[in-house]
Each structure stands twice: as structure tokens, then as C-alpha cells.
Amino acid sequence: MPAKLRFGASLRILLGGKDELTVEPGRSVRATLASLDIKPELVAMVSVNGEMQTKDYVIQEGDTVRLMAVVGGG
Amino acid sequence: MRLYVDNAKCSGCNACRVACSLNLFGENNPKKAALVIEPQFPAPGVYNVKVCTQCGDCAAVCPTEAIKQDEQGAYYVNFDECNLCEACVPECKEEVMFVRSELANTAWKCNLCGDCVAVCGTGALWIAETEAVAA
Amino acid sequence: MNGYGGKILRVNLTDGTVTKEPTPPDVARDFIGGRGFGIYFLLKEVPRGADPLGPENKLIISSGPISGMLIPGGGKCDWTTKAPLTGGYASASMGGHFTAEMRYAGLDSIILEGLSPKPVYLFIDNDKVELRDASDLWGKNTFAVEKQFKERLGEEFQVAVIGPGGENLVPYACINHDYGRQAGRGGVGAVMGSKKVKAIVVHGTKSIPVADKDSYRKAGMAIYKACKDAEGLKDWTRYGTTIVVSWCDEVGALPTRNFSAGSFEDGKNLYGPVMREKIVITDKACFGCPCPCGKYSRNKKYNNYVEGPEYETIGLMGSNLGIDDIEAVAQANLLCDDLGVDTISTGNAIGWAMECYEKGIFTKKDTDGLDLKFGNVEATFAVIEKIARREGLGALLAEGVKHASQKIGKGSEKFAIHVKGMEQSAYATHNATAMLLAYMTCDVGAHHNRSWAITYDLQVGRDKVVPEKVARVIWLQNFRPMFDVLGGCRLQWVELGIDRDLYVPALEAITGIHRSWEDLDKVGERIWNMTRLFWARENEGFGRAWDMPSPRFYEEAPKSGATKGQITKLEDVNKLLDMYYEQRGWTLDGLPTPETIESLGLKAVVA
Q: Domains in chain A: how many in total?
């Protein structure tokens, strides 16, 4: 079963409108982002099934991984 | 059907109370809302929310029968029939039956309109048949 | 007037009189409210050269048309004054429930003027307004005073109070409200202290009239729905502003050891999930907010309760002081709030003093015997207390890092992290040129609230110095502070990414005046230029030199972390300013040109 990446509104803007992607499990969030040509450092927050994780988290089968950027700022 | 609250989820923002006054009176005035938030700060740092259980005790004592029940089972005040006698107020164990004549020419209470639920961002409020259906 | 309380309350503390005047409709039309009202009254009523702590200065407290309404985030209150910290413009934004309550009492602004001969508090209950004796409250900490008022007057009263910091005129004293919300920056608390106003308590039961009730309800509900549907709502609400601690650490934006680096080797002990698990008990919101960033904490280690810490305080009281214990940071936060000093400036002042100590500029003779090394938690607590009371080392640090470093010299000016005398908030700006420019040109000093551009730096290239970056900073400076004009919060837009166009029909339904964001950005630009003109009016020789950042960001590269070895070249700093002034329509010395003044309709303001 693949995993889902979901993008918050701000990240959607950076990525030109995408809001969800299906990805294969087994790789870290960082590596997955790099493979999708998304600069990992643009992602400010990784939340996996509701808990905050680092970009080194290895994506598991069935995970919903929410990714946020901070575009407007603090 | 009634309104339920999970105090642990309330953040004390009062959006529910503005929405309530807007629905009941067409006004922006949380002092005229039918639910109450009691902040308990600095300790223990929680909010106590009081909501109507639709028990009907207020209607039972109303001498002018101004408090009526609608088709979904909610008790509401027909403002035109209220004579401000305040008989209903002490009957309400939840303390959400209001008469404040300086603010309104009628008693008021929750009519289960649901606007409070619609604006609550933390899921602290919900309407259901039983409490178990928590959001 | 639709969308307004309708009255300006003027409190003359010198003779103890209070008067009300109608809110001028043309001012409401042109300046809308909040920070717009603040700069309007400041320029008009405070005479040139006024002493910030003297009788001529005024403290202008303003709500805006979305304050207290069914609009997410309508809980922001603007406090404008001539800043004791910088001698320029100050406008501090305070969350909580005060601004809504002002409106229910029928007030759009409260203007405090003159100086009271004795301690007083301002009591407002609808139309009953009185100055009352506060001799028994003077000297007390903020939490005790707020609690006393709540017990005496009831929970419906909202309280804004100064602590010993404000009483002792610390130029970065804050105003505290709702046990943990502040008007923090620039020394608004010192101005209140100079006027001997210990507190303002307000209660109102009036309704705020709107132009079109049905459209208003629909538009307000639509913004709530957008917030609740936002992808980030749950995570944002769970962590609040601490959501970015780990990311700032990763990208080198987390101020570490007095901004000498942007990553902290023990930073992970300060990350959002650690704090949530260890101390947070309740999510605490400002008025009307569906996505509460306030995290209320039970700090078992120090046996007390505190709101926060939020990101800024974690940065400045944590990593910036080399402290990696979230409970210690929470305790420092509580001390600052209770004593009434701004955590951002205080964290900077202590960081600067720690660096002085580690470099041998200070010895134990200068630190009242404290071993003021980075990471010393107990010394940090002690210094916070000394600052608020202006005792020993605290008397020096209470001047702010600009003046303290000028006094001490020995190269310490180079690591006093400020712009225009205001200490930098918690984003390290090594090799982040857009964010650096945002701090350099911010209208109160080095503060992030107006423009924030770190993601943009990462996206475009951190070291790039290009017109697009400058344009981005300017757009944000015009637009973001408009939330402070409307009396609301920007974080629904910033953090949840909701469409800002949703506010347009809401504002129109409330006030009866249609304003597109293009119109609103223009208002923002006018206000921005007015604040610049205020700086120039109040400071002989004001210009380009005032916009320079701390040399730390162009002379000294960090020795560790994500930005190791990276700085911005001085010529690029100047290039940024050249481009900025040009795009703003300002002279090369950073002053609005006559044409710019004319085109923005500000001729009368300069005259």
C-alpha cells in the first residue's frame, strides 16, 4: 500500500497547485522530496498521521504525510 | 438532540458566543449569547463551558408559555411572549437561561441553531443525540 | 458609524479629566483603524521632539473594524507611541480579548495623554469611565494585579497591566494582558509607566453595528470555514508558533549564542513536540480565533503556569542564551511577563552581556558576581529580575543593547544585535538577504511582524540580491501590517494559507465601504511612509545609516550550523538599500521624495 503526501496551502503555492501525491514507502521524507524535485528545506513541518516528525522519518505503508511551508512568515 | 462540549478542547476564543448573539438577536454582542465560557486562569489553566442540555425545566415553569419546543426538540424563547418574570432562571442547573433586562427585553436561551459549532475551530462543540458522538 | 464603536476616549492624566469625541468618519475612511489610527494621531498630536516619557507623548490604543466581530482573529489591539527604546515610531500588537471589549464599550481608540502625579488605573464599564487610585497596586507584578481585578470585577472585565519593568521605565517594558498576551515591543509599557497608569480595565455590553448583517454573517462564516478546512489546522493548533523551531534550526535561522550562529547543537530539546509533551496543557486563543497558537503550560519543574513559550521566546531565551531546557525557557518567559519586560529585547540584552562576559569585556565585577556564561539558567533568571528593577548589571542592560554597547565600547557595539535601537527578533539573518532587508527597513526596528521572507530567500537563493526580493519585502511590508490596521491577526493567512480575498466582502459588509486588497495595500503603503516621516521628523539626520543591520551579519560568518561560513557582503547590504529606496520612491538617503509624498496624498502630513 502506498503512502500519501499532502501539501498545505502555502506549499501548494510553491509547487504550482499540487495538493496531494502518492509515493512509495521505504524512503525518508527528505529523500522523497528530493526525488520529487522539491527542495527539502522549503518544507517547514512534517506531520505523519498527526504527529510531528523530522525529515529523516522513513515513510511507512499507508502513512499520510502532511507537509507545510511558511510562506507569509512568522 | 442537544449541544455538547468538551472543555479540554475549548480555547476560550468566544467565536461561538458572537455567532450565538448574531443568530439570536442579529447583534455582535457575546454578552447576549446563550452559552458561557468561564476561564480558569492562571491556574488550573482550563476553560469551563456551560451549555444548554435542552432538559426543558425552563419551559415547565414559564407562566406565559413563552418557551416552546421546535420540531428538532429544542426549547426556544418566543421573545414576544416573555414577560421577564425570571421564573426560568433559577430552574436552569447549567446556568444558561438568561434574563438581563439592561441588555434585552426578553429572556433568552440556546435554540440549537448550530452556528456555534460551525465557527468552533477546535471541535469543542457538537450537536448530537448522545454525548458519545464526539467529533 | 457602521463597523465602529463610534467613540475616541481621551484621558488627560495631568488634570485627571476624561472626554469622549466621535470617531472622525474621514479618519475611519482613510486610516481604517488599529495601527492606521495610531500613526494618524501620533503624527497629528504628538509635537516634534517630545520626550517619549514626558507629558507630550501619548499612548494611542486602537481596535479595528474586525475586532470583536465574527471574523477569525479579530482580537488584536494596536498600541502606538513615540518609542522610549528607539526615539522613533512604535506600534505593538497585543492579542487576547482586550480589543473586543473596548469595542463593546463603544470605543475605537483610547488616547492617554499627560502625566499623572500619582499611580492610577483607568476603569471603563460601558459609559462609566473613571481614573481610580492605584497606590495599592504600584510595585506589584502583572499576574497578581490581573487576578485581583478579575476577582473583584468579574471575568467579563478585560485587564491590561504593567509590571515593575514599566514602572521603572525600562525602555523595553511591555504591557501584559490575559495572563500571557503582551503589547511587547518598543517600550509601550514604559510610556504607560511614565504616565503612572498601572492598568486599564474595560467592560462593555454594547453591540457593534454593521452595514449589511446578512452579508457580514455569510462572509464571516466563510472565513471560519476556510480556516477549519485548511490542511494545516490540526498541526498548527497542536504546536502553535513552536512548529517552526526545528525548521529554523535546520535552515540556520534559530538565533544561537547572541546570533553568532543560526543552528543550536542542542536545539532538539527545544522543538515543538518536546514542549507539547513536556509542559503544554491547554490551547489558548485570542478573541474569535479558530486556530489558537497560544499554548498554555504547566511547568512542573518550577511549579507554576505560563502561556507559552512561543517561538520568539524559545529563540531568544533558549538558543540565543545557549539554554536547551524548555522548562527553564518557560520560567524565563514567566518572569519577563510577570515583571513586565519584553522577552525579545530582554533575551537580546542578556545574550549580549553573556558574550561580553565570555570575551572578557565583563568580569564578575561587572555582572554582580554572576558567572554569566552562555547556558547559565540561574544567572539568566537573576538578570531578568535586575533588568526589571534596574539594579546592578540590570541598570545597564535596561538601556537596550544599542545604548549599553555604546557605553561599554571595546567592540561590543559589533555584537549588539539591533536596528534603530530595537533588538532583533528571533530570526538569524546570516546569508538571508530578503529577511535581512526586512529587518533593516522595518518601521519599528528589527522586528519580524511587518515582513518575513526566509522561505523566499531559500526559494530564490539565499545570497541573491535581486529586485524581486526587494519587491517581495515591500509588498509584505505594505500588506501584512494591514491586519494590524483592521484589528485582526495575520496568522490565519500566514499559517493556514487562507485566501486573503475572503476578507474583502467581510470588511465591506461591516463598514459599508468596498475596499479591494489593491486599495488596502495602498493604505498600507501610505501608513508605511507616514511612519518613515515620523522617524525623520523626530531624529536629526535620520537616514540611510539608521537602516544598517548589526555588523555581525556582514562581517562575521557563523563558525557552525547550517550557515557556517556564510555572510552577506557589505556591498550587497548597500545594494539592497539602493534597490529598496528606489522601489519605495525614496531618496538615496532613505527619505520619501516630494513626488512620493504627493502621490500618496501625504502633503498635509509633512506640513
A: 1
Q: What is the ipTM of this complex?
A: 0.97
Which residues 7-66 in chain A show a CB within 8 A of chain C?
7-10, 12-14, 19, 39, 41-45, 47, 50-52, 54-55, 66
Residue A59's domain is classified under what CATH number?
3.10.20.30
Number of domains chain B is built from = 1
Q: How confident is the model at residue A73 (pLDDT cuts 50, 70, 90)?
A: low
Residue in B closest to C238 by C-alpha: B122
Structure confidence by residue, pLDDT tens digits, C360-376: 999 999 999 999 999 99
Task: Give B71→chain C minimum CA distance, Å.
Answer: 25
Provide the domain limits for residue B60: 2-133
Of B18, B32, B45, the CB nearest to C70: B18
CA C167/CA C165 separation, integer angstroms: 6
DSSP single-letter state for residue C559: S
Cβ-contact C211, C509 below 8 angstroms: yes
Pick among C231, C283, C338 to test the B interface (most B CBs inside 10 A): C283
Tell me if A70 and C495 make a contact (CB, 8 A cut-off): yes
CATH of the domain at C146: 3.60.9.10
Nearest in space to C450 (alpha carbons), one of C424, C474, C423: C474
* CB atoms near residue C294 (< 10 Å): 23
Read off the C-alpha cell for A19: 495538493
Cα–Cα distance for residue pair C169/C266, rounded to 1 Å = 35
Cell representation of residue C328: 527553564
Average pLDDT over chain C reads: 97
Identify the domain containing residue C170 by its residue range: 7-203
Residue A17 belongs to some domain of the structure: yes
For A13-70, the pLDDT digits (tens) are 777 778 899 999 999 999 999 998 889 999 999 999 988 999 999 999 999 999 998 8
In a domain, A29, yes or no: yes
Structural domain contains residue A61: yes
Residue C17: Cβ within 10 Å count: 11
Inside any domain, residue C292: yes
pLDDT digits (tens, 9 = 90+) for B47-101: 999 999 999 999 999 999 999 999 999 999 999 999 999 999 999 999 999 999 9
Find where cell 512620493 sits: C596
